[in-house]
## 1
Amino acid sequence: MAGLYTDATTAAGKAASASTVASNGGSSDMFTSLLVAQIRNQNPLEPTDASQFVTQLTQLSQMESLQALAAQGGATAGLITGLQALGFGGLVGHEVGVSTEQVVLDGQNAVSGRFELGNASASTRLLLTSASGKTYTVDLGSQAAGEVAFELDPAKTGVPAGHYTIAVATSGGEKPAIEVTGKLNSVRLSAAGTLVLDVQGVGQTDPDAVTTFSGRSAATAI
């Protein structure tokens, strides 16, 4: 897999550089043609101020510099994506924590997670809303301020398999962010060149949403 991502990153960088060189060459040729035409057609009795030609040359140089920077930025972005792919690829089969507003229940395996309360809550609930708009409530009871762990066990909650948005409802109206822990199933590059992770209990997610690396194999995690 390392060779695949390295080759892809190198190819992307070369393509970006070649594109920029070609673009700059075309711009330079066009500028030269226009400059020559401008000099040939100027009024001999009122020649163009030489400082204008210098200004035009400066503007061309600035444009070419910006194009070169853009190409370098594209190559760097490709390299970073390749390194991310290699890093996450080594974590496939391990547990990761994902900051998310969605959960995927398969009807068999429990999904665990946690959230942080800034204040105590006399009544704490998880709200799971399906695509059709039906909401299931999981009562977590009274909770003190701090970290609150939860588990969505289909056998105990009665929530059927499906994709749900998930939120926390507290007696004080607090709306904490939720982190769901699941096995990293796969890592892939999308057609747009972005990295997509598939996490059990979450589904497809962005690498930026990963907040915790447990370092434990999901097969042997307790």
## 2
Amino acid sequence: MSTLKEILTRRPVAATIRLTISARAARPAPLVGPALGQYRLNLMAFCKDFNAWTQKYKPKTPMSITITITAFKDNTFDFTVKSPSITWYLKKAAGIELGSSWPGHTVASTITLKHVYEIAKVKQSVPYCQYMPLESICKLVIGTANAMGIKVQKELD
């Protein structure tokens, strides 16, 4: 955490970079390297920090994580990691690659309320959802499932 004095004395932001990287897969190779290298940032430091931060996720799982890297003019950086989207969790739970091409008319797959509850528990740990009631997050997950053409049932047949 930065102190107030450090925050106030920092130089202006040079750029903000948005990337999508799989968990534990940050390498100074293409995708990460060219994006950060043009701002003369320490690639190895970023890769080490990112991989350590995503250590809690399963290894080699193609889990996309959005990162915002703020490159300051003195070549330092901060980054924030967002958790995977609700759609990613729903596709994993339903075992599908894509949702329905005609939601509301064609069912792509089916999940149970237990899946909805588990996804909501994971999303409740995200900073912007931590003060939301679990019921509200479950309603968000069900709404997203309906928009994807995934049917939610009490129990699978």
